[in-house]
Amino acid sequence: MPVNEAKYQEIRSLISAKNVRMVAVSKVQSVQDIKKLYDLGQRDFGENYVQELIEKQDVLPKDIRWHFIGHLQTNKVKYIAGFVHLIHGVDSLKLLKEINKQAKKENRTISCLLQVFIAQEETKFGMDEDELKEVVHALSVDDTIRNVRIEGLMGMASFSDDEQKVRNEMRYLKQLYDLYAQVSAPCLEFTTLSMGMSGDYQLAIEEGSNMVRIGSLLFGARL
Ligand SMILES: *Cc1c(COP(=O)(O)O)cnc(C)c1O
Questions:
Q1: How far, in Å, from the CA of 142 to the mean position of ligand 1?
Q2: Distance, CA 143 to ligand 1 centroid (Å)?
Q3: Which end of the chain has fewer CB atoms at under 10 Å, N or C?
Q4: Ligand 1: residue whose CA is nearest its atom 11
Q5: Mean pLDDT calculated for residue range 203-214
Q6: Which atom of ligand 1 is nearest to the CA of 48?
């Protein structure tokens, strides 16, 4: 499946008018196809699997900003800590502490988003409202966490034709985002609401997203 250049340009002009950023989700896509989008100017790419990410990072241009958007296991943080640009799926304090530890070893600060569970489906990762509250509280009182910066929230709405349902889930995430954006703590600096994929990015932007993660519209359906 070739890279859909027309779609890429269409989405790009739509989002740049609205100050929204696009992460091109390149999981399972070839290095050649990633390079095609890179040559059109795309710099933010998202991957779900650590092994695949490190192999691609190794051979692709070094100015790519790699986003980790999958479920990150604590024991794998060390493999990406040296270069990852933004980790979207942080769903526990334990994981955050490991990211902090590895970032410190690398002498850098790693930007993260806290993933919130907003869909009704069972399969999606993320924290619920209470867990989110606990994590933010823990961060606001723990001044040993200096090598991560929490830049906002990430969520995935239900895959559904029911537009109102999808909008409600997105609105809920936006409300949490607005709420926690007011909390002041050294490692919190909310700027990013990562919400919206190929099927729902337009709704997501209407509901306040400023970072969309788009795979199949750009690269074709994953086999
Ligand atoms: C795969 C994936 C995407 C992209 O999905 P598309 O429907 O192909 O745009 C976005 N976000 C996450 C977390 C993903 O795993």
A1: 33
A2: 34
A3: C
A4: 213
A5: 98
A6: 15
- Please list the helix, strand and coil fractions of the chain in percent, rounded to the nearest 5, in that order: 40, 20, 35
For 123-137, b/e burial (b = at least 16 CB within 10 A) is ebebbeeebbeebbe
- 25 alpha carbon – ligand 1 mean position (Å): 6
Report angle CA 78, 79, 84 to the nearest 5 degrees: 95
Q: Domain 5-217 is classified in which CATH homologous superfamily?
A: Alanine racemase (3.20.20.10)
User: How many DSSP H helices and E strands does the chain contain?
Assistant: 9, 8
Closest CA to ligand 1's atom 6: 215
Confidence of residue 122 (pLDDT cuts 50, 70, 90): low
State if residue 25 touches ligand 1 by the CB under 6 angstroms criterion. yes
- Residue spans per domain, the chain: 5-217
